[in-house]
Design brief:
heterodimer; A: 11 helices; 2 strands; globular; B: ABC transporter involved in vitamin B12 uptake, BtuC
Chain lengths: ~290, ~325
């Protein structure tokens, strides 16, 4: 029972982390390696807003999410827009942005903050306390995460299927040229997708970070989980990403229960290699083995 | 008194009769024109250790390692179309194998390094093979993840010395061997790679980058060639790793560190992608810079990334391509 409940919680966490990454890649074909760093940055900003400026928790969250989406906008507008279509440069540039943010955060001692080594950076949970479900104690924060994930997926579904903005995102993802002919601005849409993706990373951060400390290392870990989920699920496929999140979440939880926590990362690597060998494009991916030319 | 007319003459016009690659040499000055940049690089590298004290010789060795990684990265990215963000994995694989052979079996470094180079390259290639069947960014992602996973696994299982690492490994016989071994490795792999990309195999690899469907239609297995290319790059990188463990007489999880992934990329982008030699020169510039900034700690990584970003956005051709163009366009007055 514990495996089922905590497995679900973990899976939902991976899904939350990965959904922003897969949205950006699906729309703009830009692998946003800055995903993990934005996650940490939002956590850190929220912490700063609460503890240094003494804002209300909710205000701090909204504010740092706004900063995140603005940051995504800036990254696209000033860096990636000049490199569209050059896959190598896109990857290297977003990787560089990610490292600048993460390693920069590591030494914000310079900028007047106390540094990650000092006191632990912890966000308070939304509600204290736990509840017993079928004999297993689960704290409210984890339940909130699950609820938030379902709400988020539903909201994204409605957004991409029934609003003009969301429809234009999907149009660009499906056929860029046809969409451009119908008046969808490719760069604006990609910019929008990057800013939504960053906001989603931030949202995941404020939901998940109350469960632990904020550290700079976490940026790499989050990026890795997002990438792992996307590879297993198939790059750019949302349903695949959610499915893959559940596969990984349960695989890791079960392996932890059976063999102990040290084998977690071994199982993750094993799953990735297995999936790549059996179904190279991921569970639901449509990535082709060959380049398609019209 | 007759007026002498003058005109501008470009040196490379007569040398490059038809194409970039085919030369027609008719005089000593033309031979010099072609050989000068190459000789400056070779002679410069070989004579450099005489002008440096012990500390900066060590820095030169480190620059050589980064140069090797930059060569591998440039070769994979520009000639095969595979962006490898995990150069640290090659360093780690080569370094750990060599160090473990030395620590547990007591083999001499001169035996360990060749074994580790080949074995590390085989392991790295095997690990990366699953990602090679797809095109696009899969290879970049998977190669980015593996060095980090390697760290998690080593720490979690506390295998091979765990977080502490193993110290007191054997060093190379003496300092001159150290310096010249890595310089020779850099020069040999630079010129071999330059030769390779113009051979038949290089043509196929470049064709895979440009249009893999056409290659497949010619009855050539794309994956086999990609595997060979990755193996070559891994050989170069693993040699660097094996050499590094014996240079410092130590192995640990920082062999998989982010420095080994990002600095070669920055060096390559700075020097000019697709020039091969550019990455080596970039490493020779960036490594002393990073040594000088050692006091700033983690700020170094931020600095590389910043340089990387500036170059990739504002000067994507890199400085070597720039100077190469200027050198080719060099003009002098001659009397008619």
């Amino acid at each position: 029972m514990e495996i089922i409940i905590y497995g679900t919680v973990n899976s939902v966490i991976y899904a939350l982390i990965a959904v922003g990454f897969t949205l950006v890649y699906g729309v703009s074909r830009v692998p946003n390696f800055a995903h993990g760093s934005i996650y940490v940055l939002v956590g850190f900003l929220t912490w700063t807003f609460i503890n240094s400026i003494h804002l209300h928790y909710a205000v701090a969250i909204v504010l740092s999410l706004l900063v995140a989406s603005f940051l995504g906008l800036i990254i696209y507008r000033f860096v990636l827009i000049r490199l569209r279509g050059m896959a190598t440069s896109e990857i290297i540039a977003s990787f560089a942005v990610s490292l600048i943010i993460l390693e920069g955060l590591r030494l914000q001692g310079i900028a007047g903050f106390k540094g990650f080594i000092g006191p632990f950076y912890v966000l308070p949970p939304f509600f204290q306390g736990k509840i017993s479900i079928l004999g297993v104690f689960v704290d409210y924060q984890r339940l909130i995460i699950i609820a938030a994930c379902f709400v988020l997926v539903a909201a994204l579904w409605i957004f991409t299927h029934y609003t003009k903005m969301g429809l234009s995102l999907r149009a660009i993802a499906q056929d860029e040229r046809a969409a451009m002919m119908l008046g969808v601005h490719a760069d604006k849409t990609a910019m929008l997708s990057l800013s939504i993706g960053s906001a989603l990373a931030g949202l995941a951060a404020v939901l998940i970070l109350p469960l632990g400390n904020i550290t700079a290392e976490m940026g790499y870990k989050v990026l890795i989980y997002a990438l792992a989920v996307c590879i297993i699920g198939g790059l750019g496929s949302w349903v695949g990403a959610i499915l893959a999140a559940f596969v990984i979440g349960f695989a890791m939880k079960i392996s932890t229960a059976l063999f102990g926590a040290v084998w977690e990362s071994v199982v993750l690597v094993g799953t990735i290699i297995l999936i790549l060998l059996v179904r190279p494009s991921g569970l639901l991916g449509k990535q082709k083995e060959l380049e398609e030319r019209v | 008194m007759p007026k002498t007319a003058r005109r501008k003459k470009r040196l490379d016009r007569s040398v490059k009769v038809r194409t970039e690659g085919l030369y027609a040499l008719t005089s000593w000055s033309e031979i010099t024109y072609l050989l000068l940049p190459r000789l400056v690089l070779i002679m410069g590298l070989l004579s450099l250790p005489f002008f440096l004290d012990m500390y900066w010789q060590r820095v030169l060795c480190a620059a050589g390692i980064y140069g090797l990684l930059a060569l591998g990265f440039d070769f994979l990215a520009e000639f095969v179309g595979l962006v490898c963000l995990g150069g640290a994995f090659f360093i780690g694989a080569g370094g750990y194998i060599s160090g473990l052979l030395n620590a547990y079996l007591g083999l001499s470094p001169l035996v360990c390094i060749p074994i580790a180079t080949v074995a590390g390259a085989v392991i790295s290639t095997l690990v990366l093979v699953p990602a090679l069947r797809l095109r696009g960014i899969y290879f970049a992602i998977v190669s980015f993840m593996f060095p980090l996973f390697a760290v998690y696994i080593i720490v979690a299982l506390s295998a091979f010395g765990g977080t502490e690492g193993i110290s007191a490994l054997d060093n190379l016989p003496n300092q001159w061997v150290e310096v010249y071994l890595i310089l020779a490795a850099v020069l040999v792999s630079l010129f071999l790679l330059r030769r390779l990309v113009d051979e038949d195999m290089g043509l196929i690899l470049r064709a895979i980058k440009d249009n893999d469907q056409a290659v497949k239609a010619s009855g050539i297995s794309i994956t086999t060639y990609k595997i060979r290319a990755v193996f070559i790059a891994a050989l170069i990188g693993c040699f660097g790793g094996a050499y590094l463990t014996h240079l410092y007489g130590w192995l640990g999880i920082s062999l998989f560190g982010m420095d080994f992934s990002i600095l070669p990329i920055a060096a390559t982008v700075m020097g000019g992608m697709g020039t091969l030699a550019g990455g080596v020169l970039g490493a020779l510039l960036l490594t002393p810079l990073s040594e000088a900034l050692r006091g700033f700690g983690q700020l170094r990584v931020v600095l590389y990334c910043f340089i990387l970003l500036l170059f990739i956005v504002y000067k994507p051709e890199g400085f070597l391509s720039y100077f190469q163009r200027k050198y080719h366009q060099f003009e002098l007055w001659e009397e008619v």
